[in-house]
From TrEMBL:
Keywords linked to the UniProt accession: Signal
Lineage of producing organism: Bacteria, Pseudomonadati, Pseudomonadota, Gammaproteobacteria, Oceanospirillales
Descriptive protein name: EF-hand domain-containing protein
Taxonomic superkingdom: Bacteria
Transmembrane domains' residue ranges: none
Gene source species: Thalassolituus hydrocarboniclasticus
Amino acid sequence: MKTRYIALPVLSVLFSASFLLSTGAQAADVPARGPMAFSDYDTDKNGSISEAEFNAAHDKRMQNNSAAGMPMKGAAKRPMFSQFDSNNDGKLSAEELKNGQMHHQQEMMDMRKDQMMNMQNMHKKNMQQ
């Protein structure tokens, strides 16, 4: 019995350490979650983000997360370049990126809020039956 109590925390620490080491290389590339910095997208450093750079940064994040064993549940909700390119010039400025990221985050929060409310309503209905 005592070995079971010791083994579980040890395995937990080892798993956590290996996960942190495997995702540590990713930190230098693109963040695993949340908004990416303008510099993560603008790989040619010309001061704007092309559609190809935008898609490449998102693809790189998905590849890194997949390699780290992270769930890909938000992949279908990935923002589109056209949603960010407010002046339709085929490139994103820092301001367009920031505004697009804020809008996308708000949409995601609203969607999660709706999901939670739907789950609560379903739970209430089940409790009434």
